[in-house]
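Lab notebook, page 48
Experiment: co-folding of the full assembly
Goal: obtain a model of how the components sit together before planning crosslinking
Operator: M.T.
Materials (sequences as entered):
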Amino acid sequence: MDLGKVIFGFFIVLSLTLNVGFVLGEYSNPEHHSIYELFTVIVVNFIATGLKLGDRSQVGAVLLATSLVADFELIAAALHWTFAVHISDAGMNPNVMSTIVSLSGGALVANIISVVILVAETLRARL
Amino acid sequence: MKSSELNRVSFIVMRELRAPLMTLLIVYSIGMLVMTFIPGIEIDGEVQHLSIFHAFYFMTYTATTTGFGELPVEFSNAQRLWAIICLYVSVVAWFYALGSIIKLFQNTFFLRALAEWRFTKSVARITGPFYIICGFGDTGSVLVRGLNDAGMNAVVIDSNAERIQALSLRSYRIFVPGLCADASVPSHLLDAGVSSPYCKAVVSITNDEAVNLQISALARLLNPSVCIITMSKAHEVEDTLATLGGEIHIVDPFKTFAKVLNACINKPAFYALNNWLVGSRGASLEVYEQPPIGHWIICGYGRMGMEANHALNLNHINTAVIDPHSRRRDEEIETYIEGRACAKTLKDAGIDHAVGLLAAADDDGQNLSVLLNARRLNDDLFTIVRQNSHQNEIAFNIANANMVMQPTLVTARKILLLLIAPLLKHFFIYLLAKDAGRDQILEALITRLKQRLGHKKPFLVTVNFNRSEGLELVNCLEAGHTIFLGDIIKDSRYTDKALDLVPFVIKSGDQEIILPTDDYKIKIDDQLLFCGTVEAKQLFKANINSEYTLFYLRTGKYPAVGYFMQWYESRLRKKNGNNYD
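Observation: model returned without errors.
Model output:
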């Protein structure tokens, strides 16, 4: 067992599972989507991205790319939330919520790809 | 070179199209100019004139017989009169121009210049080592196919347009540019890239010995460092070629065959190995074919019969020769029967007590009929038959002789091995040496190959441990680490399994290490020849080109991947004070 692989796998899978948790629920119902969940998804995603930095292999490059995509979409979702609640007068409403959920849904797909690559890479080396 | 080809193409275009283009220009300009001068109809008391733009528009649709009508306004009768003249003259001028263009595309000089230009362009686009193959007959096509399967670039020149057509219809993994031209003309060899630093060898295997000689000499003049490989069946030519200097290989299919026959009699295991490596049909490491010792009959005493006779005599085998030509004086042959091989002559040659028959005439029909005749008279014969033409493959397959000798195939395989596995020669010399214990080594090798490869197709692979073929390996060696051969031939997917390959030779400097062991320390610029499956070849290349895999193979540990883990590990190391790796 390799400690590095454990830490790596832990954060990548955690970011996927938290992401699923946030997206689950009625699409446009603000009561079903917690701001704290979004916050943890973003933090965990950042940590996962950080762990992927510096890998010079081909697979490492693709893993980093998927992580960056997820970061990008989650930040967009967070900005949209902030804008709706604090800057414009609209406040939280189903329209805003559906946009946030679809953005984090996109991040979810990127996270799934990330986990699939991780699993495939691990299975390739049957050590 | 490239620009001169382009110049020739553009020159022909200019010369052929000058007159029609000038005609069009004059007709258009006069038509347009006059059209603008002629007054049109009056609208609101103002006489309408066509502008230059409108006149050009009018000429365009008139000359091409499109005929949109009178635009932008109705014409006056004066304009209509001029329009009639314009129409007839410009339409004729257009047809003249079109005809000239079509004629240009049928001009053989133009087509040839275009083909040469395209060929030069595709040769210039090759950015790795490549080989020039002059002559795309039976030998050439087997050779190009083999090079293609090994992932190598080849360029073909053949003077026969049909053969070049055949080349373009083959399905190759790597594109093979072909030119229909005489390869003994220097400019064509230059087009094929003989002076390029990527050009590794010029292979001249046309049907004409004189042409082969000429190509070889030219290639040596144009590129003193290129390797020259040629096919020759005459001694005089061989002597001339040997004086050209530099690396030069002369392949004589009959001599090669005689060597193989000799090896087959003395070391049947070697013959089986050789056949299996070159991928002969039905070759296997399980059964060894061994020609029996006794009385042999040779039908057809040409070059092949002669070489085979020498090989048999060397092994103290009695031979009887049947040949329609009269005996040459300087040779001592016990039984020489003049005439065509038939039941009577075969009986005279002692078919009833013969053990082997060699049908070596340069006529496939005759060889097959001799084979059938002889079998009728004595069905325990060991038969060797010469197949001259690839087209008769099916007939020879059915005839089921013990050995089929196809000169074109022998040549092609020999050249292919010279190109893709130059170290194999040293390996074979080692195996064939008469030293004690070599037979056991050979047997052990065959057992090992059977275990490793089983029934899979063997591939001979040459790998140079340099920056372009094994970047990470070189980086690792330069960092001062020791890498054993045993490390890089492991299967990185399992902890204790090796790849399905057997290393044959390592060339290190001027030294050749035959059958290197796992504890051989790799040095930069070593050259390795191994025999393995296609999968093993891929995985081996991945092993020496991936930093992380190489680290794992070397140390058995996972490398720290990513900046964070590297930082964490270096901290851990400092704390524990242990030096890792």
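Interpretation: The CA atoms of residues 292 and 355 of chain B lie 7 Å apart.
Next step: discuss with group before ordering constructs.
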